[in-house]
Q: What sequence folds into this?
């Protein structure tokens, strides 16, 4: 079953057309990496599918439920109650962690399950501690974000996303704010999640990681999907000149 189906999505900021007729489906247990140059529309696309931005045209459905339909060429969003329910299907991990600085690590993870999902506090804390164990941070429950490294903060952010028991997680360049050593920590966690069949859409500039973990790689440029397919095809044997030029540039910078 497709957990996400996006058709003909369009998004402009004023005169600037950022997304031009993008269609994409994400199947259950699938890991998709989105690569492409800065300004290609990757982050805007992720913000649209996670409903942080509204789209101008096109349709979106999650787990078979319509979040956005189209009428007279314009997108129409479902009612507030439907959207709140649909948002429970996914979690989002940001590049800059976005932890609450005045909350302990444990409260950062349990706050939404308790207040949004109405989960029992004792149960939520038990699950949060299990997630901290999984992230290798069992001893950090009472710490505050400023006491943690960037890599540790990002692992907390991933634990927070998992605590909502989503059907899929969107990652917006989860390693871009980290140095290489800490990047390796996060990529290891993502590989473990992929092995556990977590459905993920990951914007990344880590090409080797995209090759090793993805079922499908999408190359975006200029607000469109230029090329998509198996990692070995898109990364190692691209057919489009724009994809080839982008990968050459990345490889020469390494």
A:
């Amino acid at each position: 079953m497709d957990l996400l189906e996006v058709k003909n999505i369009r998004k402009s900021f004023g005169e600037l057309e950022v997304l031009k007729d993008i269609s994409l489906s994400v199947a259950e247990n699938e890991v998709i990496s989105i690569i492409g140059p800065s300004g290609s529309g990757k982050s805007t696309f992720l913000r649209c599918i996670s409903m942080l931005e509204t789209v101008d045209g096109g349709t979106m459905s999650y787990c078979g439920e319509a979040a956005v339909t189209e009428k007279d060429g314009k997108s129409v969003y479902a009612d507030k109650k439907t959207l709140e329910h649909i948002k429970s299907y996914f979690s989002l991990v940001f590049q800059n962690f976005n932890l609450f600085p005045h909350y302990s690590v444990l409260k950062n993870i349990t706050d939404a399950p308790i207040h949004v999902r109405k989960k029992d506090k004792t149960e939520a804390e038990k699950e949060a501690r299990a997630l901290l164990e999984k992230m290798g941070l069992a001893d950090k429950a009472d710490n505050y974000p400023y006491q943690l490294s960037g890599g540790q903060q990002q692992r907390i952010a991933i634990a927070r996303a998992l605590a909502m028991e989503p059907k899929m997680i969107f990652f917006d360049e989860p390693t871009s704010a980290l140095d290489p050593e800490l990047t390796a920590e996060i990529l290891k966690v993502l590989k473990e999640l992929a092995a556990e069949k977590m459905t993920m859409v990951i914007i990344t500039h880590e090409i080797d990681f995209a090759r090793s973990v993805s079922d499908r790689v999408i190359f975006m440029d200029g607000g469109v999907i230029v090329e998509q397919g198996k990692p070995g095809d898109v990364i190692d044997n691209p057919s489009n000149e724009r994809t080839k030029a982008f990968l050459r540039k990345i490889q020469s910078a390494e």
Notes: Residues 180-195 form the longest helix (16 residues).
